[in-house]
Design a protein that fits this description.
The chain has a single domain, classed as Bacterial Protein-export protein SecB (Roll), CATH 3.10.420.10. It is built from three helices and five strands; from the N terminus they run E-E-E-E-H-H-E-H. The protein has helices spanning about 75-105, 120-125, 130-139; strands at about 5-20, 30-40, 45-55, 60-70, 130. It is elongated, with a radius of gyration of 17 Å.
């Protein structure tokens, strides 16, 4: 049975790591997801911007990651649910693994990001959706 949602790839197009003295009270972690869609290609991307300020090891880590998906859903509700709930939930473990592997191989204490329920981003992902087909038509 063919799934209506297929994870195709995980890419890290931007990664920045800086060992530096940071004056903060506690470590912080922020993520900002963005969804892009091409209905013509039946594909969507979940881009996640992430920043980690680590007080204990004194470093700043910033990255952009992209999860690439194809889909065969015809109903908008099902598509938006795939994109805004399933997409981030599938991509985030790759980010966690990437950061854990990088920090452990860099001579620092391994950083393991917490598991997160990203469904709180659902409305913003749908509201701020970038439609690549419309964008290309306007250019």
């Amino acid at each position: 049975m063919e799934s209506n949602l297929n994870f195709r790839n995980f890419v890290v197009p931007r990664f920045q790591f800086e060992k530096t003295e940071i004056d903060i009270e506690k470590s912080s972690f922020e993520i900002q997801p963005q969804a892009l869609i091409s209905r013509k290609k039946q594909q969507f991307h979940i881009n996640i911007e992430m920043e980690l300020l680590n007080k204990e090891n004194q470093f700043i880590l910033k990255m952009t990651s992209v999860g690439i998906f194809s889909y065969s859903a015809q109903e908008e509700d099902q598509l938006f649910n795939f994109m805004s709930v399933n997409g981030p939930a599938i991509v985030f473990p790759y980010i966690r693994s990437f950061i854990s592997n990088f920090t452990s191989l860099s001579g620092f204490e391994t950083v393991t990001l917490p598991t997160l329920n990203l469904s709180g981003f659902k409305e913003d992902l749908i509201k701020n959706l970038i439609d690549l087909d419309k964008k290309m038509a306007n250019e």
